[in-house]
Hints:
Blueprint: H1 4-32, H2 36-43, E1 50-52, H3 53-60, H4 64-76, E2 80-84, E3 92-96, H5 98-122
Amino acid sequence: MKSEFENRDISGLMNDVLKSIALLNKAIESHFGMSSARTLTLLAFTEKRIMRMNELSEAMSLKTSTSTRMIDSLVEDGFVERGNDEFDRRLVTVGLTIKGKKVAKDIKAFRDRYFDSIKDKVK
């Protein structure tokens, strides 16, 4: 069983982590001029290059209707393109355009530098 001190330590650490993530999201929004929801959607494609809409929704823990609206916006801005599944043309697939890949890569690098700067402060 954890002592009161250990629980306070963990709680403080969690608060620091949440604060750092919130600051990172604000920095990304400011630097890239897009909401954290849009950047998280772009970053969802780092594991898979092309996904079905339901896969994207599951990966982001969103309803399909919510992720569809986000994708609509990203398609309109040229970051994402729609297609059809090669085996079942009824299924919609989505993937990053060249522009989307570049921005996702830049966001990931920005995020990695941010986390590195935090690690350097902790050392």
